[in-house]
Amino acid sequence: MIAAAGFLAGIVVASVLGGIALAVTHDRNGPALLVASFVGLWVPLVGAALVTSTSFGTRSLRRDLGLAFEPMDLVRGSLVAVVGLLAAAGVQQLLSSFPDLVGTNTNFIEDQAKSLLGAVVVVGSTMVGAPFVEELFFRGLLQRSMVRLGVAAAFLQAVVFGLIHVTPAEGLGNVGIVLGVGVFGLVLGLAARHYGRLGPTMVAHSLFNAAAVLPVLLR
Questions:
Q1: Distance of CA 75 to the CA centre of its chain
Q2: Rounded to whole angstroms, how far apart are CA atoms 218 and 167?
Q3: CA 215: distance to chain centroid?
Q4: From CA 202, how far away is CA 34, in angstroms rounded?
Q5: d(CA 113, CA 104)
Q6: Using CA atoms, how far apart are residues 56 and 33, in angstroms rounded to an integer?
Q7: Cα dihedral sign, 103-109-113-115
């Protein structure tokens, strides 16, 4: 319930802060709207994790949600990232005969790449913020809250993870987006289950996003 409440609150707060940023700046493609949207989404997600650990756990994010890191996680995470990239690429390849079903949720990167501030926001949000917050929420809170379901928990959180990346403007292209991101989320979920902590998946998530972001920014 707390995970669901945090998720819904994130959507609402992100919409409100995004609306305020848009009203102030009148810029749909500027970094202010992007920052407002991410902050609005992430604060409730992290809050849900903290509330769960504090009220129903041991008050240790390490013990309750697996928020732990060790140096070898850099290697483990790199391997997980490669598997995730191959899996996501495999999905895109399977859909290649149906181009209408292949979309992208990275168009905002090109808009932000036009300014240094925008590029910094993109790098910080996709390679640092998202890997930390989304792993803590999806592979930490959400997946562990369904631990009694066994490996099925990894599949269920992957479905939700894929669905939150829906991009309305992409229409049918969301089929490819949801499947690609969902498959990557499954790889992360299985890795989190195997290693028992989030260090490797945070590294993998960051590298996966870097593979999508950096080629656009460095054009």
A1: 20
A2: 24
A3: 19
A4: 21
A5: 16
A6: 35
A7: positive
Tally the residues of the chain: 219
Q: How many CB atoms lie within 10 A of CB 103?
A: 22
Contact present, 153 and 100 (Cβ < 8 Å): no
Using the structure block, give the residue that is written with the tokens 């997946």: 143
Residue with tokens 């499954």: 186
Q: What is the mean pLDDT of each run of 10 residues along the chain (219 residues)?
A: 91 94 89 92 96 95 96 98 96 91 84 87 94 97 95 96 89 93 97 97 98 87
Q: What's the predicted TM-score (pTM) here?
A: 0.94
Give the model's pLDDT for residue 143: 97
- 68 touches 197 (CB < 8 A): yes
What Rg value do the Cα atoms of the chain yield, rounded? 17
Instruction: Give the separation between CA 34 and CA 37, rounded to whole angstroms.
Output: 5
